[in-house]
Every structure is written in C-alpha cells, then in structure tokens.
C-alpha cells in the first residue's frame, strides 16, 4: 500500500460551494437563520433539528437536490467539550464543496477549518481507506496557509506514530528525517552504532545496542538567522522494557514510544512550511533506538557515564527514554540555545495524573509557562503545568552514582523524570519539557484512534514570545 496522501487543501475560493449554516439551540428548538427561507425552516423543524452539537440537517431545493445544510454547534457552554467543531461535519456531509454561510459569534473559524482538515486523515499504508469527500472553502479572514501547515505537521506525526516498528525502526525514522530535510533545505548528520561511543554518546549506545538496527543520533539544522531553538524528541522506535521486560498488555502500544520524535518532526514541518525557520536557528535532535532484549542489552544495576559526565545507576531498563534524551540534551546545551524543548512519551505517571489528552508541561519560567498554557488553550492543544519540584531532587540521587534513572516508591514519576532531564539541559537560556502520550485511545471527531500530535500547535503559536 502507498503511504497516506498529502494533507488536503481547501476548496478553491471560486468554487460553486453549497452553504453550511452553523446553528445554536434557541428557546424553542434551533435558532434557525432567516436567510434559509420559510420552507427550509419548516423542513428543519419537521426533521427535529434542534442545533445540538454535531446534528446535521440537509436542506433540499424545489427539485429535491441538496441546497445547503444546517449543522448544530450547541450552546456556548457545550462548545468547549467539542474540540473540533467542524470535524464531524466534514465526516458526515455528502461529497462536494461547502462554504460557511455565516460564522456565529464565539466560533473560532480557524479552529473550525483546522478541524475540517484533520477529519480528512486516514492511515492508508496497509489498507485502503477513503477520506471524507466534503471540501471546505477557507472561511474569510483565516490564514489558510497556516491552517494547512498545522494539518501537514499533524498528519506527519500521526503517520510516523501509526507505523509499526517493522517499518519504523531507527533506520526508517532516519529516512523520515532525511525526507523532511530534503523538502525544506535542511542539513542532516547521523551518528550510528559504535560511532556513538567514539563521539561520546554512551547512553544512547547502551540503550540501543541490543536492537536489530543500530542506535543513532539524528541531527537536523535548518537555514536561518536569529535566536537558537533546539527541539529534542525521544525516538524509541519500540520499547520491550529491556531486561525489565514489560508485560504483553503494556508492550502492545510501544510502537508509539517514538512519539516525541514524531512530534518534533511535525513541528519542524509546520515551521518550515510557514517560513518561520528563516527567523531562527532551528535544530532538531532525535536519539533513535530500539530498547530490545539480547545478550548485549544493558542491565539493571549497570552504572552508565553520560555525555555530560554524570553517572547514572540503571535501576530499571524500562526507564530508558530519559537516558537517550540525556545525551541528546547534553549535546544541545553545549550551544546554549535560547530555548531548548524536549518532547517524549516518557512516563505512565503523567497519564495517571492528567489522562491521555493533557500532557504535563515543565518550565522554570512562570511567564513562559503561562504563555504556552494560554497558547495551548487557544489552539485546542492543551497543556497543564507541573513543577520542577526541587525538594524531589534527592529522589533521583541513588548514593553510588550521581543519578538514578528509576527512583523507587512510586511517587511523582513524571516530576522525577523531568528533574532528571533538567540536569542535562542547564546551559540553555530556557528549558521546556513536554511529557506527551502521542496517542488517541478512542476515535473522536477529527481525532481517529491512533497516533496523535500534542503540543505542536501550542508551541507554534507561542514561539514568537518564547524566543524573545
């Protein structure tokens, strides 16, 4: 099967598009627009259309053909529960070109249009899948190029996460990075296998050396001038848990353990499409490994010396993501970027605390954290701040080494993992860490079950302020 097609475009502005009215409930049924005429109003009432969220009513003309449609968006109180207002409309409307006849007060046309595009996603690499055939004319006043770029980055991240490890090992992840670099004029260098030892990336090598494909560090640089932004994404292409093997139920989704890498590549895709990489020095680092089981696998109790020189006691080989990220962060901080961001499917503790939709954000700067939080809310890409809680530093200090990769006790797992990573990012002016899930556990409008982008749009919106 071919790979998933490119993200959809909007319908041409001059298309003979059918009108779509967005309707809220009224005092008696739906608050129907006067512009549709009395006949259409009577038809909608006879069909029981009440403006409930996701409710659709097709309107006929005098010959029985479709003349337009009404789509319920619910009350203002119900709207926040519907992350993608128009996604369900895109999935249920018949084929053809559609335009928004009016945009009610309180409706974000940009997010509506993005939801429409996101509803077109289908993972079709192994099985044919038809996307919805209803196209939207870009609503007046939105930045259509930006919306398409956001959809493109999301589609890329979803595709990478959804691809199983048989076709998305470290070599394949490298190929995906090379393809992105070629599309956007970036340079790429890769350190593989035993070269990781000679060039001082010992923990990336230790975690990945038992894998079927050689571990590697992927390094992309985009041409541009301005403040330095470095994105580091966890690229564990499959995680067995290593010698501390996961049970089968926990291993089933581990193709998604490279979700951090997928998301930083998706964000880079957005930035490059929008030309924003010209105004910064963007670097993307991905430690790509498979945490496998073999005679040469790293062991519980091993003490590893990191690139930064800090020693790490391995108390659980299933806490491998922070090890590979640590070497990559140590490389990143050597250039002291203005902003250093890590994204990783790092801890189950984050999911227990906040669930699959709400990734924890760690940041020492109150102002930057607030900006990113607000950007996430505005972009329907929510983040929730958790603290780099200094009193817990002692929990990651085992006594016979500088650091412990898996403190016992079961407390504050997301926080202690973030504290571990911060030890390797200290030279950056600002450091942000996002502990993402990267997966949609059940289908929702615009969000099919499977790989998911998280934090990309929030960062895209906030970066102009974050890099000041």
UniProtKB/TrEMBL annotation:
The UniProt record lists the keyword Manganese: yes
Keyword terms: Aminopeptidase, Hydrolase, Manganese, Protease
Record-annotated Cytosol aminopeptidase domain positions: 316-323
A single GO cellular-component term on record: cytoplasm
Family annotation (Pfam families): Peptidase_M17 (PF00883), Peptidase_M17_N_1 (PF21337)
Molecular function terms from GO: manganese ion binding; metalloaminopeptidase activity
Protein family per UniProt: Belongs to the peptidase M17 family.
GO BP field: proteolysis
Protein name from the UniProt record: Leucyl aminopeptidase family protein
């Amino acid at each position: 099967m071919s790979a998933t097609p490119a993200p959809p475009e909007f319908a041409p502005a001059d298309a003979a598009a059918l009108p779509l009215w967005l309707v809220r409930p009224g005092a008696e049924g739906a608050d129907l627009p006067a512009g549709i005429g009395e006949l259409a109003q009577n038809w909608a009432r006879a069909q029981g259309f009440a403006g409930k969220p996701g409710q659709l009513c097709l309107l006929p003309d005098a010959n029985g053909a479709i003349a337009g449609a009404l789509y319920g968006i619910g009350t203002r109180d119900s709207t926040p529960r519907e992350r993608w207002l128009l996604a369900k409309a895109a999935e249920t409307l018949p084929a053809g070109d559609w335009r928004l006849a009016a945009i009610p007060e309180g409706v974000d046309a940009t997010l509506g249009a993005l939801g429409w595009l996101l509803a077109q996603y289908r993972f079709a690499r192994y099985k044919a899948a038809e996307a919805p055939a209803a196209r939207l004319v870009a609503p007046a006043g939105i930045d259509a190029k930006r919306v398409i770029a956001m959809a493109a980055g999301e589609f890329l991240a979803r595709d990478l996460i959804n691809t199983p490890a048989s076709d998305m090992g470290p070599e394949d992840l490298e190929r995906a990075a090379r393809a992105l670099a070629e599309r956007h004029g970036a340079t790429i260098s890769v350190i593989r296998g035993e070269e990781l030892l000679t060039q001082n990336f010992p923990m990336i090598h230790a975690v990945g050396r038992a894998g079927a494909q050689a571990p590697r560090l992927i390094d992309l640089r985009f041409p541009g001038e301005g403040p330095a932004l470095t994105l580091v994404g966890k690229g564990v292409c499959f995680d067995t848990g290593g010698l501390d093997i996961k049970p089968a139920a926990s291993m089933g989704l581990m193709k998604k353990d490279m979700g951090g890498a997928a998301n930083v590549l998706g964000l880079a895709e957005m930035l490059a499409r929008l030309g924003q990489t010209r105004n910064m020095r963007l670097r993307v680092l991905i430690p790509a490994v498979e945490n496998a089981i073999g005679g040469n696998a790293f062991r519980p109790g091993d003490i590893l010396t990191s690139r930064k020189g800090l020693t790490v006691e391995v108390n659980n080989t299933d806490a491998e993501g922070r090890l590979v990220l640590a070497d990559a962060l140590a490389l990143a901080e050597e250039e002291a970027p203005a902003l250093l961001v890590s994204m990783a499917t790092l801890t189950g503790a984050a999911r227990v605390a906040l669930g699959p939709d709400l990734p924890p954000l760690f940041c020492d700067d109150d102002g930057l954290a607030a900006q990113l939080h607000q950007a996430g809310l505005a972009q329907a890409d929510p983040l929730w701040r958790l603290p780099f809680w200094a009193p817990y530093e002692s929990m990651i200090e085992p006594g016979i080494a500088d650091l412990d990769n898996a403190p016992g006790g079961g407390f504050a797992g997301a926080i202690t993992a973030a504290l571990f990573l911060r030890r390797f990012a200290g030279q950056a002016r600002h450091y942000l860490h996002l502990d993402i899930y990267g997966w949609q556990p059940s289908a929702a409008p615009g969000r099919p079950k499977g790989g998911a982008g998280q934090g990309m749009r929030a960062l895209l919106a906030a970066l102009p302020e974050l890099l000041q």
